[in-house]
Design brief:
It is globular, with a radius of gyration of 13 Å. It has a five-stranded antiparallel beta sheet with strand order 3-2-1-4-5, with no helix packed on it. The longest helix has 6 residues, at 32-37. The chain has two helices and five strands, in the order βββαββα. 12% of the residues lie in helices and 45% in strands. The chain is mainly β and 83 residues long. The chain has a single domain (2-77), classed as Nucleic acid-binding proteins (OB fold (Dihydrolipoamide Acetyltransferase, E2P), Beta Barrel), CATH 2.40.50.
Length: 83
């Protein structure tokens, strides 16, 4: 798991942000609360807990603080069996 991502905002949308860090553009899913708090493209962003691997799903998610958890849509979890 990656717990921290810092880089330049390339694009910003209500449900995602693309952050370039070390030459790699990370497409990160974000909650609306993070979208409204983020600076505009070109600024530096620091996202917490942006990457988590799940059995059949690899998804990059991020928020500005540890207190803003992200919920995956139920349709994405349909094929994942909890152990």
């Amino acid at each position: 798991m990656i717990g921290h991502l810092r880089g330049t905002i390339l694009e910003k949308h209500p449900n995602q942000v693309i952050v370039e860090a070390a030459g790699v553009g990370y497409d990160v899913q974000i909650p609306i609360s993070t979208y409204t708090a983020l600076a505009e493209p070109g600024a530096t962003a620091t996202l917490r807990k942006p990457f988590e691997m799940k059995e059949l799903l690899t998804k990059v998610e991020g928020c500005l603080s540890k207190s803003a958890p992200i919920q995956l849509p139920k349709y994405l979890l349909g094929g994942i069996k909890r152990r």
